Amino acid sequence: MNYLAPSSAKVSQPKFFYGWYIVALGFLSHVTCAFHMSSTLSVFLKPLTEDLGVSRGLFSLLRSGEILIGAAMAPAVGPLVDRYGGRWLMAGGALVAGLGFVLLSQVSAFWQFLVLRWVLVTIGGVFMCHMVVSVTISRWFMRKRGRAIAIASLGQGLSKVFIPIVTASLFVWLGWRWTWSIFGIVTLVLVVIPALIFMQRSPEDMGLKPDGVDEPAAANAIATSKASTKVQAQIAADSVVWTWNEVLRTNTFWIVCFIYGMANVGIAGLNLHVFAYVTDIGFEPIVAATVMSIIAMAQLGSTLVWGIIGEKIEIRKSSMIMFLIQAFGLGIAIATGQLAPVYLGFCLYGIGLGGSWILQELIWATYYGRFSLGMVRGLGVLVTHALGAAGAPFFGFVHDATGSYVSSFVMFIVALVIAAFLGLVVQAPTKS
Fold this sequence. Notes:
Layout (H helix, E strand, L loop, with lengths): L18 H15 L4 H15 L3 H29 L2 H18 L5 H19 L1 H11 L4 H30 L1 H23 L16 H10 L3 H11 L5 H5 L2 H30 L4 H28 L2 H21 L3 H15 L2 H13 L4 H16 L2 H12 L3 H17 L10
């Protein structure tokens, strides 16, 4: 979103806006939330399946269950964020998840591991991770919402790059059980106390305004802006309060869910199967690992750029650019089977992927405002994550049926192109 404030208008701001403390807390939360992710769990797959005597196929169902649990809980958690803020949700969620990680070190059977992951780690993660962070940051920022969300998400990006290496090192030094305990302790230290100290529901609760801009000065800036009508409309939309029924009756909600739901199917499938795809086309495992690192580094390096793009370019157009970059990159990656195109293609895909979560958060906030955002995001997560849970099995079953991942990748490319152009027809919702 673009909120224009010409240099000639004097907009008073505090020396340091409190919202950046919220962003820093979101960064820490994203670091620890990476402990929950598939990329981290995949490092544990071999030692855990061997020690607990479970097949890799059965172990893989664990993550799909976690995604579905998170999706089912989201509609209940979102309104809690709107009403009460994230302080106790984040602190309580981190306490539960941290305890779950510590207890994982004591399991002796797979069913114990599964129960702890689903009941403590997953449920705790829903209260401390992405949705609570993004909704809270969106309440604190309007003009700089894109970069604020992007900076917080850098915590996840850095973790995706470094946690596999750190985890593998801890395996060598301490074993997988102590590694889970360390993850639990880090979660408690980085999130519980900082959340209790710094988390605030909204700037209005502290007598502040979004971005730290005084309301009279902001109004003057809008009045003198060349795009005052557009900016006023954006600010007006940011203050609208929605109910569940009103949201579900808007076409905008279902179109956005469909767009990002399709994308989530492909992203989830590619995340789990890209290593196998690269080795299947004849490359060594080290090349496949390098591809995964390239995707993670490209995603990390582009995150802040996408946040700024989301502020400068209208959200429908920036989303279209993001999806087309991903589609173009995947097309290059699978076109020839040669090493250079594989590296280049997955690098472009990673660049596009860097905007996926950020622009998704921005599009919800742009169309449904700040004050009902938790409820809206909860409903959206229910749909998009439920679709995403099917991604990994879908890629796997298509491979089993065809003997190749090419069909899955082609379908993902087609879905991204459809999402790119379907996004252009999305219109801001209006209350009846």
